[in-house]
TrEMBL record:
Pfam families: Gal-3-0_sulfotr. It is found in: Golgi apparatus membrane. InterPro entries: Gal-3-0_sulfotransfrase (IPR009729), P-loop_NTPase (IPR027417). GO terms for molecular function: galactosylceramide sulfotransferase activity. Gene3D superfamilies: P-loop containing nucleotide triphosphate hydrolases. This is Galactosylceramide sulfotransferase-like. One of its GO terms (biological process) is glycolipid biosynthetic process. Keywords: Glycoprotein, Golgi apparatus, Membrane, Signal-anchor, Transferase, Transmembrane, Transmembrane helix. The keyword Metal-binding does not apply. It is a single-pass type II membrane protein. Belongs to the galactose-3-O-sulfotransferase family.
C-alpha cells in the first residue's frame, strides 16, 4: 500500500513539473528573464547596407546616357567623390581609345585613382587602371535602327551627306559592304555606334567571330548593361546593384527630344539599317536577353512597384522644380525653366552636361590645389 502511494506521489510530481514547464514556455509564469524561442535566438541581426561609391559609366551616344550621367554626377557631387574629368568640353578621348595619358593632372587625385568616370570616352580595358577597387562597370544600349535614326537627326547628318535619312539608306546603304567604310561623322559617329563607343575597330564590323569576341569581352568587363527602352526598370535595377535608395535615381530627361522629330521609316528601311548595323544588332540582342533574365531574377511584380514609385518621385521633382518645359536645347532638345528660389536638387537635376562638368572641375581643382599646397609645405 505504501509503495502504491509513492508511485502516485511520483506521478503527481512529474505531471506538476511538466505543467510548470509548459506554463513557463508560454510566459504564463514569470521567470525573471525574457524567454526566447529557438527561432528568435537564431534570428539574424539587422544588416547595415553599404552604398557602392565607385562606378564607371560608358556613355554611349543617343541612348539616354546624358540623363543617366546627370544622376551619377549628382550622386558623386553630393558624396564629394573624385571624378575623372575631361580637360575641356565633355570628351575624354574618342576617336582615340582611352589611355592613361588622357588623365589631366590638374583634376587628378592623390593616388591617381578615381571613384567615378561618367563622361564620353572610347572604351579600352586601360580604364581599369585608373578606377578604384570595387568599381561597378555600367553602360546603356538602344535598339540599333532607332539609334542610328536619332544620330542622323540629332547631329544633322543630312547636311554632311546632302540627303535625308531615307535617301541616305537608299543611296548609301544599298551595298552593305561598302556602307561600313562610309567616313564617320567627326571621325566618331556613324555605323555600329554602340560597338564603336565600346572600343570595337571598324574593320571588325562584318566579322562574325570578331563581333562575338568583342561582345564576350564586354560581357566580362561590365557588371550591368542598361536598356534605353526600359530606362526606369534599368534605373531600379541599378539602384539595387549600387545599394542606393531609389530617390537617388530621380531624373528629368536631358538631351532628349520629342517624337515629332522622328522620321517615319518603312519596314524595308528599318531592315536595311539593322543589316548595316549588324554588330550593334548582335550586341543589343545579347544584352536584351541578359536584361530579361535580370528582370526575372529581381521579380517582375516587385520591379513594377518600384517603377511606379520612381515615377511618383520624378513627378514630385517636376512639380517642385519646373515652371515650364520647352524645346529650346541643342537640336530641339527639351529644356527646363525652373521656378524661382528652387533648392539645390532642382538646380543640379536640370543642369546640362557642359555646365555641370565645368562646376565639378572647379570643385576638384580647388581640392587638388589645397592637397598640393599641403604636400609642398611638408616637403620643404
Amino acid at each position: 500500500m505504501r509503495l502504491v502511494k509513492i508511485k502516485y506521489c511520483f506521478a503527481f510530481i512529474v505531471i506538476l513539473l511538466t505543467l510548470i514547464t509548459f506554463l513557463i514556455s508560454f510566459n504564463f509564469i514569470p521567470t525573471g528573464f525574457k524567454h526566447r524561442t529557438i527561432i528568435e535566438s537564431k534570428s539574424p541581426q539587422p544588416v547595415t547596407v553599404t552604398e557602392k561609391n565607385h562606378i564607371f559609366f560608358l556613355k554611349t551616344h543617343k541612348c539616354a546616357s546624358s540623363t543617366v550621367q546627370n544622376i551619377l554626377m549628382r550622386f558623386g557631387h553630393m558624396e564629394n567623390l573624385d571624378f575623372l574629368l575631361p580637360s575641356i568640353h565633355n570628351y575624354i578621348g574618342n576617336p582615340i581609345h582611352f589611355n592613361t595619358s588622357m588623365v589631366s593632372n590638374k583634376y587628378s587625385t592623390v593616388d591617381g585613382k578615381f571613384d567615378m568616370f561618367v563622361h564620353h570616352t572610347r572604351y579600352s580595358q586601360e580604364v581599369k587602371s585608373v578606377m578604384r577597387s570595387g568599381t561597378i562597370y555600367v553602360t546603356i544600349l538602344r535598339e540599333p535602327a532607332a539609334l542610328f535614326q536619332s544620330l542622323y537627326s540629332f547631329y544633322h547628318f543630312d547636311k554632311k551627306y546632302k540627303c535625308n535619312l531615307t535617301e541616305f539608306i537608299t543611296n548609301r546603304l544599298s551595298n552593305k559592304t561598302s556602307a561600313n567604310y562610309i567616313k564617320r561623322y567627326n571621325n566618331k559617329l556613324g555605323i555600329n555606334q554602340m560597338n564603336w563607343d565600346l572600343g570595337m575597330v571598324t574593320n571588325d564590323f562584318e566579322n562574325i567571330d570578331m563581333i562575338n569576341k568583342h561582345i564576350n569581352m564586354i560581357e566580362r568587363d561590365f557588371d550591368f548593361v542598361m536598356i534605353f527602352e526600359y530606362l526606369d526598370a534599368s534605373l531600379v535595377l541599378l539602384a539595387h546593384i549600387m545599394q542606393w535608395p531609389l530617390e537617388k535615381m530621380a531624373y528629368l530627361p536631358l538631351n532628349s527630344r520629342k517624337n515629332t522629330y522622328k522620321q517615319i521609316l518603312s519596314n524595308d528601311d528599318v531592315d536595311r539599317l539593322l543589316k548595316v548595323n549588324m554588330a550593334d544588332n548582335m550586341l543589343y540582342k545579347r544584352f536584351l536577353l541578359k536584361f530579361k533574365k535580370m528582370v526575372s531574377k529581381y521579380g517582375i511584380e516587385k520591379l513594377k512597384k518600384e517603377i511606379k514609385r520612381l515615377m511618383v518621385i520624378n513627378q514630385e521633382i517636376l512639380e517642385m522644380c519646373v515652371q515650364s518645359v520647352a524645346n529650346k536645347g541643342y537640336a530641339g532638345t527639351i529644356s527646363y525653366k525652373l521656378k524661382a528660389n528652387t533648392n539645390a536638387i532642382c538646380k543640379y537635376i536640370a543642369m546640362n552636361e557642359l555646365k555641370y562638368t565645368s562646376y565639378l572641375r572647379e570643385i576638384q581643382y580647388e581640392r587638388q590645389k589645397k592637397y598640393n599646397e599641403l604636400d609642398k609645405l611638408m616637403n620643404n
